[in-house]
Amino acid sequence: MKLFQSRYRIVIPLLLVIVFISCDSDDSTNIVLSDESQELTIFFTNDMHGRLDNFAKIKHIVDAERAETNVLLVSGGDIFSGSPIVDQYSEKGYPIIDIMNQTGYDVSVIGNHEFDYGQPILNDRLSQATFDFVCANVDASSGILSQPDPFTTLTVGDLTITVLGLVETQGNYNGSSIPLTHPWRITDLIFDSYDDIATEYENLKIEEDSDLLLALTHLGSNADFALANSSPFLDLIIGGHSNDLNDGTVNGIPVLMAGGNLSHLGKIELTIEDKAIIDYDISLIRLSGYDQVDEDLAGVIDEYNNAPEFAEVVGYAASDHNRIELGCFYTHALKEYMNVDLSLQNSGGIRTSIDQGDITKFDIFSMDPFNNGSVVFTMTAGEIKNFFIETGQGLYVSGISLERDGNDIIIYDENGIEIDDNTNLTIGINDYIPANYEEYFSIANADIRELTTAESIVEYLTTINSTVDYEGCD
Q: N or C: which end of the chain has fewer CB within 10 A?
């Protein structure tokens, strides 16, 4: 039976094996203690999104533990998309692969944002990693991507650990479930739901003769909890995607997550005996409170961070701007720079806030890190209205205002004048939105611009209006 705890340490006495030995002269008994338990520490991170700085702290912590016991270092995915130092590097994504190699990672699950650069670039990054990438619910046989292994089995000391990878499929493209990434960048890849695939591996621990079966997921907390309830054959779940701090148990299985943007390093110390966890202790280490670093790795990170091209000041923020306020700025900047009637932007495409003061290229590429292209569509007001009504999407909008009128929508121009359904309007937009809604935005009718949306916004700031002042905008 699997023994477990929610958070606090439970100490369980080791099994006493009593061996009776007959002697010629008397009936004395010798008691021999079994000492077959093994110690294992698993460190984990997730959703790093290109943040490099805290890896030097992680390496210092992990190396110290490795000197004392068996250690596994794992990643819950989404290592890319979030920092220009990584995303705009000449070999997109390479800096974080290099740093993870030097930190000593053993395995990572493929997250949805690992697909953001496209399949050829992802192939290059996977080939440069000295650690394993796993993902069981992707079929790459018809795509450009090299087929990832569904699981990997690692030897750590005298322990055999099997790690099964699962990625979320919350997106939808042409009726198929896909991860939340740019659909055009995962062409010909087929994804299955995690719950359909996980049950195929219920005998994996036996087949691999493993001491521990770990599900390394990029599903989000709710899906991890559901997985724990539906998959009692798992010993441990370490996840990512929802950026939560999880250190509890579900159905007797520890379900863990370490925040996001490398804010924390998760740690679980396990005692394993007879292929079962008999004791464990969980901690989530807040890295801002840890001062020691691996000096050599810190030097490498400093070299990557020394990128003066991103320090160039391109604008000024009149006040602190949250993501909603930046949605107003983003769409207004695209509308003006692309010289169109209106602009739309998905809320998930705004990734950071911007503080009052100088705005650098680093700030803009952090706010909009996905290298999405800029496109212009010409549509009637009626077609735009149908898009909002039929999809139910909530988007940032500039150039028009919308008013709900029962089951209908009224569209007004910037002067408050109602726009007739037959009026043609030009729309400046990132190409992620039309890729997800091709039935409304036919790429055959798109005017594809040369610059990415982030590059377009930099041009707006440097050539049209350098001041960002959208406090209170919603």
A: N
What are 10's two structure tokens? 């439970």
Q: 272 pairs with which residues across the strands?
A: 38, 277
CB contact set of 457 (below 8 Å; sequence gap of 6+): 330, 333, 334, 337, 364, 368
- The two three-digit tokens of residue 329, written as one number: 């700025």
What's the rounded Cα separation, in Å, for the pair 191 and 211?
A: 29
Please give the Cα distance from 228 to 421 (Å, whole number).
50
Tokens 């110690």 sit at which residue? 39
Note the pLDDT tens digit of each residue in 38-90.
Answer: 999 999 999 999 999 999 999 999 999 999 999 999 999 999 999 999 999 99
pLDDT tens for residues 205-248? Answer: 999 999 999 999 999 999 999 999 999 999 999 999 999 999 99
Residue the block writes with tokens 């004392």: 68
The residue among 383, 372, 371 whose CA lies nearest residue 439 is 383
* CA neighbor of 217 nearest in space, from 256, 166, 163, 261: 166
Residues paired with residue 428 on neighbouring β-strands, in sequence order = 343, 376
**Residue 56 amino acid letter:** A
Beta sheet of 236-238, edge-to-edge order: 151-156, 159-167, 212-218, 236-238, 253-258, 245-250
Phi-psi category of residue 422: left, alpha or beta, with phi > 0 → left and psi -120 to 50 → alpha: alpha
What's the DSSP call for residue 207? H
Q: What average pLDDT does range 10-25 have in this prediction?
A: 34
Beta-bridge mates of residue 237: 215, 255
Do residues 113 and 181 make contact, with C-beta atoms less than 8 angstroms apart?
yes
In 131-202, where does DSSP find H-type helix? 194-198
Report helix, strand or coil for 474.
Answer: coil
Query: In a 3-state reduction of DSSP, which class is residue 400?
Result: strand
Number of other CB atoms surrounding residue 314 within 10 Å: 18
Q: How far apart are CA 167 and CA 144, in angstroms?
A: 18
**How many Å apart are CA 149 and CA 147, to the nearest integer?**
7
Nearest by Cα to 135 from 146, 120, 124 = 146
